[in-house]
Design goal:
5 helices; 124 residues; DNA-binding; homodimer; Arc Repressor Mutant, subunit A
Chain lengths: 124, 124
DNA sequence: CCGAATCCCGATCGATACTG
DNA sequence: CAGTATCGATCGGGATTCGG
């Protein structure tokens, strides 16, 4: 195996907990997983729900999440294509934490904005 | 102003809550902020604490966090240089959420590993 | 018609060496 | 000890094309 798994330590780059963190540390994953918390969605619906995401990045991120067992992909094998994505139990547990992060951003972004402006003013 | 601030909605790419999320969605920010939760640290100590980070990325990320009011930089103006970083109250509140994320990764990475292996096996 | 794969470019990252 | 500069490698993301 590639990594020594001692105990889970995200500060150890050789621990695969770090891989897990890097998977999560993606702005799209942080939006996709919470979006799926309310129930299964088609790829087109996700594309509309998540503003600013491209089809490519959506598919790419979903594949990565599927690969790691966080998202389950269900292809209805119909014409026209109908593909649904839903959270696995593992994905749902992660989604809970990510929802908290999203809510933090939605609550505190004005303070970040203000700090940025203060910072710029200070250097002018 | 660049973005219409309606209400905080991370799903709206024109809301600066999205900017906040993108700032957070960095593997280094996710390690730096929790690392500072235990108290102020010097830059060298952070470099040692956070495995795999380069001096460049550490400085760069710290600057970004400082710019957004999450981290406070204190230069002791001595020779040799002594610079300390510590969380602002805002940064501390974010750190709490990030700690939860880190702990999720440390708890569940074996399940991700297993899922990846299952995925590979399925396609072989 | 919907979802995925390919090509291509700019932005970003990381290693190393250097400055104050 | 803290930060910067440079450069090659890598990644993100859009436009386009493919396939069912």
């Amino acid at each position: 195996m590639a990594k020594t798994q001692k105990s889970g330590d995200v500060y150890d780059p050789s621990c695969s907990a770090r891989d897990a963190l890097e998977l999560i540390a993606s702005k799209w994953a942080m939006l996709i997983l919470p979006a799926l918390a309310d129930g299964p969605m088609r790829s087109g619906a996700l594309l509309r729900r998540i503003g600013g995401v491209s089809q490519k990045m959506l598919t790419q991120t979903l594949r990565e999440l599927e690969k790691n067992g966080l998202v389950i992909r269900q292809d209805m094998q119909t014409v026209p294509p109908h593909v649904e994505y839903r959270l696995s139990p593992l994905g749902a547990s992660l989604s809970d934490v990510l929802v908290a992060l999203d809510r933090w951003a939605e609550l505190h972004f004005p303070e970040l904005d203000a700090a940025r402006e203060r910072f710029l003013r200070r250097r002018s």
